[in-house]
Amino acid sequence: MNGLRMGAIFLGAISVFTGGCQNKVHDDNMALHDQNRKLQADLNDTRDRLGDSESRLAKAPDPASVSQMQARINELENQLKSQPTPGGGTAADPGLTGVEATYDKARGTLTVNLPGEVLFEPGKAAIKTSAYSTLDKVVAAIKKDYAAKTIYVDGHTDADPITRTKNTWEDNWDLAAARANAVRRYLTAHGVDSKKVDLRAFGPNHPKGQKAASRRVEIVVQVG
Q1: pTM for this structure?
Q2: What angle do CA 104, 106, 110 make, to 5 degrees?
Q3: How many domains are there within the chain?
Q4: What per-residue confidence (pLDDT) applies to 21?
Q5: Please, is 86 exposed, middle or buried when counting C-beta atoms within 10 Å of its C-beta (0-12, 13-18, 19+)?
Q6: Tens digit of pLDDT for each residue in 118-129?
Q7: Is residue 94 in some structural domain?
Q8: Does residue 123 sit in the same domain as residue 159?
């Protein structure tokens, strides 16, 4: 079975709509997926700004600004809950929110991208129980089609220095490593061969377009 075929199987197994399908259903699903990601990114950025504003209140109180941002957060959360997701369901289902996967033919890799907000509370490295269903789909796909393949669990953060949890983490690389290791432990505890799973911590070295998108864990399967 070649890498492209295996990629198609894996993407289907975790209910992610990617690949070469050009029909209307595919296009609609991709549009919904993009809308959900933008809403989630907007929500995460607003939460970041709210946290920064609250930390400055002691020096320059501005309750009106904080109140406006909190109202915006509530609005975005309501939009996200009512927004349909690819393949059915709603974005309120954390097992489907924000999950994407890509196949890189040149590198021979399949990469599952898991946003930090889906997996973890801010500044923490304990996996949310709401994320278990997402990870279970990945585990099932790996055990079915990629049991003998090398897997890398990569931790990424944004570039902001750690402040609110600086007593827990030395720096962004420390947090990235702890989050990657939490996902690695989940995979191996659920039957993925521990000898096939390595972890890597990149900290802020591989950012994405938005700060919220940069905070992520990637599960990279070496299929080629």
Answers
A1: 0.62
A2: 25
A3: 2
A4: 36
A5: buried
A6: 999 999 999 999
A7: no
A8: yes
